[in-house]
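<instruction>
Derive structure tokens from the sequence
<data>
Labelled lines for chain and fold
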Amino acid sequence: PNILTAANLVSGILAILLAVAGRIDLAPFAIFLGAIFDFLDGFAARLLKSNSELGKQLDSLADMVTFGVAPGVIMMVLMVQVSTDTFQSFTSPLLGEMMIDGHLTFTQWLAGIFSGEVGFSLKNYFPFMALLIPFFSLFRLAKFNIDVRQSTSFIGLPTPANTLFFMSFPLAYIYSYPTTLLELEVYSVVYHPSFLGALILLFSLMLISEFPLFSLKFKSMKWQGNEIRYIFLLISLIFIIIFLMWSLALIVFLYLILAFAENTFIKKKKDEI
């Protein structure tokens, strides 16, 4: 299990290296690989009955890199790139090809920031907003380790869910193209640095919130008691088939909506009974 946890850490480091190199088309897949290792280490620990305090600490340290630092760096690189792209020449059958070589690279931006060549303006420094992701992930992971209320459910948004949400943005940016003027307008809003910054702030605060969220751990395979989980999995599958690259963000939104519905209606009804 600890070797699998270390593989999760290495996957996160690989994602960071790919992002800094400008390969935001590949960096999310390194994070997905880390998520697989993160699942397998817990599965192996339960299978071998080798749960330990060391494994718990290693898991948090690896998660801090893969689901904290890596998504923050990836979003920072994305925000640098979109700040020089207004989508006026975004690749699409309708609107023509995008001049990727004309973009300001992350390393050029970073060198300009630290050398003082980049002027001091909010727009130029806005990508640093992405560092809120690892900042709040640190507190989220530490809180999870000591919060006894989170043995069967979650309090606040888990770091893997937060990371999956943000991975939709680089994937859709690279692999999903607007084909109509309406889609172009939507992309121009969604990929505006201010909008991305607002999402980063909102979801970072969700990491440390007291909002209860259900886990996907099934105590049994029966429908009763698992209604929310089955509904979530079914709709998530539909999202993946229909929305492809945007499905990750939509699935996380669905997760939050269903958790709100469970807390507001289902648990309230049970308490009344």
Observations:
- Residues 1 and 47 are 10 Å apart (CA to CA).
- The longest strand covers residues 153-155.
